[in-house]
């Protein structure tokens, strides 16, 4: 199941093997307000597209809804049903009851925003007439197996993408700090900010560990076979704010992995495939909670933004270029960044595209393979070279050839 922030993302998901997509509407009631989203008038178009390709479509209505919003919500539910959309994802129990009353035949799925973490909570969802549960992301494979053995309700599990530091649907940090409620679709991502740690009234010096609430991204491909065996019926990719290239890339790799698990009871994801997924978007990959609680693995605390893949460390600096032994292949035009420090000791990420490329012999080339030494040249004035030191880490964060593919 793949995310679709707009029509181009929907096409990317369909063409790369998604069995279903989920998307939001621009009239509200959706937890990704900043996504481009779809208008009510687009529903018939997206509905026809999905039916023509045998792909299911789910609308996210996964926010808390105020009483005075119930009347306009009825009209939205009716439009969704008329367009032939397969199901709605809801957080609010009141919305679930309203959908069931207005359109009894429309499937209702429990969003991960409901924070359903046990078979007992799923029984409540079942009484509301829900047809599927997207489990909370804070569960391990062992816990998911235990839940699956106690319910006949189809289960869906997040397999890839960004994670919240709080139980989804229960984070009030953004609203408390800035008046923007995550449970109304307007999360300001307070978890991605740097923080100081004060313990018993004293500030603790954590050196470079500043991003204390920012989890790495989930990459759960290693758990796919176990989840299939547990009876999980759907694996969900996060990313309604991501690009069509991200949707295509991640959907394609997980399509292959799911097929491997179903056909051969094993999943093999190559180093190249992992790199490609990291290049689309990655704050660093982790298994999330699927392997249990490992807080240090989940939140290393060193950064909160996309960095891509680490190429290596600066060996030497010459003019507008650096020398690096490559941990991955590079080519002219690739996007790079260098992790530096300012004179005040603050983190500084700077970079640009590879403007010139030379191998270890000093010969000009258009690409250099993994494990080789290369000189990576930047455009004039792109880098503050006074801030760059030998030993600084170099990252590849964009690959135009991958994006085109």
Topology:
Blueprint: E1 2-3, H1 7-15, E2 20-24, H2 43-53, E3 56-61, H3 70-82, E4 87-90, H4 93-102, E5 107-110, H5 119-127, E6 132-134, H6 141-148, E7 155-161, H7 173-178, E8 197-199, E9 202-204, E10 217-219, H8 224-230, E11 234-237, H9 244-264, H10 271-280, E12 285-286, H11 295-298, E13 309-318, E14 321-325, E15 330-331, E16 335-341, E17 347-353, E18 356-359, E19 367-368, E20 373-377, E21 393-398, H12 400-404
Parallel strand pairs: 1-2, 2-3, 3-4, 4-5, 5-6, 6-7, 7-11, 10-12
Antiparallel strand pairs: 7-10, 8-9, 13-14, 13-21, 14-20, 15-19, 16-17, 16-21, 18-20
Helix pairs in contact: 1-9, 3-4, 9-10
In short:
By secondary structure, the chain is of the alpha/beta class.
| Helical coverage, percent range | 25-40%
Structural class: alpha/beta
The tally of strands reads 21
Distance between the termini: 21 Å
- Compute the average pLDDT: 93
Largest sheet, if any? Answer: 10 strands, mixed
Describe the structure in your own words.
By secondary structure, the protein is of the alpha/beta class. The chain has helices spanning 7-15, 43-53, 70-82, 93-102, 119-127, 141-148, 173-178, 224-230, 244-264, 271-280, 295-298, 400-404, and strands at residues 2-3, 20-24, 56-61, 87-90, 107-110, 132-134, 155-161, 197-199, 202-204, 217-219, 234-237, 285-286, 309-318, 321-325, 330-331, 335-341, 347-353, 356-359, 367-368, 373-377, 393-398. The strands form four sheets. Strands 1, 2, 3, 4, 5, 6, 7, 10, 11 and 12 form a ten-stranded mixed beta sheet that branches. 28% of the residues lie in helices and 23% in strands. The radius of gyration is 23 Å and the shape is globular. Helix 1 runs parallel beside helix 9.
């Amino acid at each position: 199941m793949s995310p679709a922030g707009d029509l181009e993302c929907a096409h990317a998901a369909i063409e790369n093997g998604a069995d279903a997509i989920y998307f939001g509407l621009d009239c509200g009631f959706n937890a990704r307000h900043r996504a481009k989203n779809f208008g009510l008038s687009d529903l018939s178009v997206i509905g026809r597209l999905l039916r023509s390709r045998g792909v299911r479509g789910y609308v996210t209505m996964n926010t808390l809804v105020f009483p005075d919003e119930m009347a306009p919500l009825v009209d939205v539910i009716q439009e969704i049903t008329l367009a032939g959309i397969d199901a709605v994802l809801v957080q609010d129990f009141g919305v679930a009851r309203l959908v069931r009353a207005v359109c009894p035949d429309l499937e209702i799925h429990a969003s991960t925003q409901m924070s359903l973490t046990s078979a007992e909570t799923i029984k409540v969802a079942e009484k509301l007439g829900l047809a599927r549960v997207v489990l909370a992301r804070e569960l391990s494979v062992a816990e998911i197996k235990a839940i699956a053995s106690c319910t006949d309700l189809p289960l869906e599990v997040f397999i890839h993408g960004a994670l919240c530091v709080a139980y989804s649907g229960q984070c009030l940090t953004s609203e408390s700090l800035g008046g923007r409620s995550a449970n109304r679709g307007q999360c300001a991502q307070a978890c991605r900010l740097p923080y100081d740690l004060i313990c018993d009234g004293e500030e603790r010096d954590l050196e470079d560990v500043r991003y204390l609430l920012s989890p790495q991204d989930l990459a759960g491909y290693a758990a796919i076979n176990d989840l299939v065996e547990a009876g999980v019926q759907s694996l969900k990719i996060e990313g309604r704010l991501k690009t069509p290239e991200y949707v295509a890339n991640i959907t394609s790799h997980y399509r292959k992995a799911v097929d491997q698990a179903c056909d051969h009871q094993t999943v093999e994801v190559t180093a190249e495939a992992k790199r490609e997924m990291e290049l689309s978007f990655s704050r660093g990959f982790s298994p999330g909670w699927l392997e249990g609680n490992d807080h240090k693995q989940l939140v290393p605390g060193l950064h909160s933004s996309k960095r891509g893949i680490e190429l290596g460390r600066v060996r030497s600096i010459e003019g507008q270029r650096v020398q690096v032994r490559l941990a991955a292949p590079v080519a002219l035009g690739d996007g790079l960044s260098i992790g530096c420090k300012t004179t005040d000791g603050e983190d500084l990420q700077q970079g640009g595209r590879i403007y010139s490329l030379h191998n270890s012999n000093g010969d000009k080339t258009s690409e250099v393979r993994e494990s080789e030494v290369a000189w990576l040249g930047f455009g004039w004035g792109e880098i503050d070279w006074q801030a760059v030191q030998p030993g600084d880490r170099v990252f590849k964060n964009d690959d135009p050839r991958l994006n085109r593919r």
